[in-house]
Each structure stands twice: as C-alpha cells, then as structure tokens.
C-alpha cells in the first residue's frame, strides 16, 4: 500500500459496502452514539435496569460479530495464526458486543422515557 | 519506521476527523488534492485494464482541456487476482467480471478496438479497424499476452476435461479449472502445477494454487492418496530469496513436491502425460490434474514496435522504460504502466497501483515543462494464500528487500488470519478504488 490516507480508506470502504450503505452505516453509528450520549445526559448517568439487560446481550453481539466475519470470509477459529490474529478477533468481539450493548441500552432508555423521580 | 509513523499519523488524522464532524470530509473524499493543469495535449492510452483505467481516471481529474483517448477492444473488465479464487472454488466466475465502460471517466474517449500499430517516430497509434490516433503523449498499458501455443499439444478448448486447468485464461476458464480440480481433490492422484520460464504476472498465483489444491484435498480426506507436484523452470521457488526459502519450508511441511529446472514443453491429452525440458533432457510426468500457465510476452502490437528493449528479454518484448520513472528510454513522450514494463519486478496489480502516481507525476510535469520527482522502487505485492483462511503478506522491492505495509503489526512471512481477512474483504475494493483513481 503506497499511503494509507483517510481518502483512500473511505474510498475502499465505499467499495466494500457501496457508497450509500457505507454512509448510511456511518450515519447510523453516529446517531446511536449521539442518542446514547443524550440519554446519558438526560438521566444524569447510567440506569441500572437497561444496563443489566444490555450487558446480558453483549456476549451475544460479540459471538455474532465473530461468527459473521468468519462466515463472510470462509474462515474459522482454527485459522488464527499469530498474536495479531487474536487481537483482531478480540477487537471484532468487543466491537460487536459493545455495539449491541450500546444499541440495546439506548433503545430501552428511549422507550422507557425519562424515569419519574 | 517512517511508514509506521505515516500510518500512525494517518490513524491520528482519522480519529481527529472522526471526533470532529467527520461528515464534512465526505464531499471532498477522493477529489484530487492538487490543482488542475490546463493543457491541450493529446494523450493516448493503450489498454483499459488495471493500469490504463486507473491512469485515465487520474488524468481526467488532473488535466483540464486535454484530449485523452483510451484504446481497448475488450468490453469486459477482468479482476484477474480473482481468477485464483475462482479456480479454487471460492468464488463464482462472475466475481471477476465487470464492464470496461463502467470504470471509464467522462471526458475520456474510449476507442473500442485493438491497437494494431504503434509508431513512436510518427507518434501515432493505428487500430485494427484503421482508426489513426495521433498523440503527444503515449501510455502503454496493454498488459501481456499469454502464449498458449507455447505449450505443444495444448489448446484452450481442452480446459475442464481430462484433468486440465488453465486459470490464467479468463474467468470462465478459471471456473472450468475448478471443475477439474474439484474432481481431482475428490478422488486423489497426481496434480501438476507449473509456471513458465518467461517473466509472468503474479508469480505467486501458481504457488497459491498448489497450496489451495493441498488444502482442498485435505478437507476432502484424499490428501494421503494424492501427490501434488510444483514444477518451475527456475532454480528457486520465488525470485526473492527470503520468500523462496519460506515457501520451500511450507511446501516441505505440506508435502508438496518441488521439481525445479522443469520447463513444460508439451502435453499429451489422451495419455495424460506432460513433457518437461530439464537439464538431464526431456522428462515425462503423468497427471490427474494439471494447471497450465504458458509463456508470457508483450502483445504483438508492442513486440512489432520499436518500444521493446533491444538487448534484454528479447524473446518477450517488454518495453524499455526507466525502472524508476517508467518513462521510455528512447522516446521520452512514451510511458509504461503495468505488466508491459521492462523492469525487473512488479508484474502485479499492486505494482500497477504504484506505477500510476509515478507516471502521472512525470507526465504532468513534462506537460508543464518540468521534471517529475516520483520514483517507483519496484514495489510488488502478493497476498500468498497458504490455505483457505490464512495468507502471508509478501511485499518487496527491486532489491529483494521486504517492504511490509504494516511493519511491527502484520508480520510479512507469517501465515496469518488477518492477511486472509484483508485479502477477502479489502483486496477487490482496493483494486476498484484504484481503477477509479482513488487509491
Ligand atoms: C491468475 C492471476 C492471479 C493474479 N493475482 C494477483 C494478485 O493476487 N495480486 C496482484 O496484485 N496481481 C495479481 N495478478 C496480476 C494482475 O492482474 C496484473 O498484474 C494486472 O492486471 C496488470 O495490469 P495491466 O494494466 O498491466 O494489464 P491488464 O489488467 O491485463 O490490462 C491490459 C489491457 O490491455 C488490453 N489490450 C491488450 N492488447 C491490446 C491491444 N493490442 N490494443 C488495445 N488494448 C489491448 C487488454 O484487453 C486489457 O484490457 C494476477 C493475475 C492473474 C492472471
């Protein structure tokens, strides 16, 4: 790779997902993060009940993310060859688990609305 | 270290941008960073493959008022790195097929015909249909031609039957190669995988096919009843010594037999016998599966022109360009991009991706009456698949030095899942971004 600039990375991501889907995904990720920050401010901190539920779902997100990547790339756990592979696997799991947790927490908090008192 | 800093810097830029209103960057993404140059220059590009399409897009963004014409008789665009995946049953044939037209920028004229004559003295290109194109600047990006007649007894209509494969020929032939390889790996027997004595595009491709054949046979439980033979005319498995040694070790581990100094001369389809020229004389080997990669040369239109080297690769006809600037040594208004270049390394799409900005720099500078500064260092890259799910990133330069893109992060000569992921997820998108002039 000659140089890894932001432009190149965006161009490659646009090719991977299609321009529309890629930017829709970026927008969705930003929207969810903003919504999460908003409920955080609104509730002045994390609420314990939605947190428990979203924490329960986190491992599901982690496993699903790893499974999805391996399914798309026709590979499996036996293919992990070096430390960087384990780091990548962990990163995928954390992204999947964290993402689902964030989404789930935010959705619950939004649906429940502001807790009285 | 410099590259790592660059990477870290671009990551920091990325994070900084992500933090602060990243959508602002969206509109300008991929737009040429440098100012447009006004010119009335007539530029002809021969070949609309990987290199020709990419430079057409770059020039369309960089030049204002230039008359850019691209000549190619092929309506289909082929993503050739996909051929190996098709031949291993990992992708269907349409995976590698798009159209030439969809990648070409507006403002560039496409002459849908084959260049039949290049006259660098008169500065003209004449097509088979008789169209005459006068140029001020010529970019030769014709790729190379596969000399199927160079293997006696073989013709392309044999592919798919009698255990015969030839995955270099086209996406369809790659799919038929998989049909033959699939049958072989289901039953066992002897597989012959070879490469030619000439220079070739993607010297890693036959190695990958050998690894993939081994993996497929293992997964089907027929490896114990199979012999996989890799035959090469050279004295080593790869031109870069450190890579050759690694491949030798892996072949040893996988039980892939190596026959060096074996040049395929002919095949006998009915007896399933291949004859190789060796230092000890002709040698016959039987096959249940054979993949044929023929000698490779410059297309006839180039070989018949004054552009090739007079004293190097005389049987192959690669054009005489400077190995650092890719500008022709005798005709300064001629540049080469991609496989056609007579340079010691770099017949890969990854190299073509590096050729493009170098030629752009020197061409635009020349149009402005300046000297360009960009240098091509021989960068060649090949994600060497060693089994389904793992690959080694192999990147090197003219000096046989390894030039890893991610030093300290992704080890170059290690079989890794991350290298496979990058190949699976990012390689074709990166190639497509290159075609658009964005990578
Ligand atoms: C099986 C296989 C696997 C590969 N794997 C990899 C890989 O993993 N990584 C990698 O980087 N590279 C790989 N490559 C190599 C890569 O595809 C080529 O190096 C790259 O396409 C070269 O680009 P190019 O523009 O020089 O030639 P091409 O992309 O081949 O394009 C040449 C164009 O010129 C046109 N043309 C030919 N003659 C004429 C004429 N007379 N007039 C007009 N037009 C003409 C052709 O129609 C074609 O469109 C592989 C190649 C093969 C075959």
Q: Can you give me a brief rundown of this structure?
A:
The complex is a heterodimer of chains A (117) and B (439). Chain A is mainly α and 117 residues long. Helices cover 78% and strands 0% of the residues of chain A.
Query: Judging from the principal axes of the Cα atoms, what is the shape of chain B?
Result: globular
Number of DSSP helical runs of chain B? 10
Sketch the major β-sheet of chain A: none
The main pleated sheet of chain B reads as: 5 strands, parallel
Oligomer: heterodimer
What would you note in describing this structure?
The complex is a heterodimer of chains A (117) and B (439). With 117 residues, chain A is mainly α. Chain A has one domain (6-112). Chain A is 78% helix and 0% strand. Chain A contains 4 helices and no strands. Chain A has helices at residues 6-17, 19-42, 48-72, 83-112. The radius of gyration of chain A is 17 Å and the shape is globular. The mean pLDDT of chain A is 90. Chain B is α/β, with parallel strands linked by helices. Chain B folds into 2 domains: 31-73 and 112-142 and 302-378, FAD/NAD(P)-binding domain (3-Layer(bba) Sandwich); 148-294 and 380-434, FAD/NAD(P)-binding domain. Chain B is 30% helix and 23% strand. Chain B has helices at 2-19, 50-62, 81-87, 100-103, 171-187, 205-220, 241-254, 300-303, 349-367, 417-435; strands at residues 37-38, 42-46, 63-64, 67-71, 76-78, 97-99, 108-111, 115-119, 124-127, 132-134, 137-140, 145-146, 164-165, 189-194, 226-232, 256-260, 263-268, 273-278, 281-286, 289-291, 296-297, 334-336, 380-387, 390-396. In chain B, the strands form 8 sheets. A 5-stranded parallel beta sheet of chain B has the order 7-4-2-11-22, covered by helices on one side. In chain B, strand 14, helix 6 and strand 15 form a beta-alpha-beta unit. In chain B, helix 2 (50-62) packs parallel to helix 9, helix 3 runs parallel beside helix 5 and helix 5 packs parallel to helix 6. The longest helix of chain B is centred in the last third of the chain and has 19 residues, at 349-367. Chains A and B meet through helix 1, helix 2 and helix 4 of A and helix 1, helix 9 and helix 10 of B. The structure holds flavin-adenine dinucleotide. The site of flavin-adenine dinucleotide has 36 residues of chain B, from helix 2, helix 3 and helix 9.
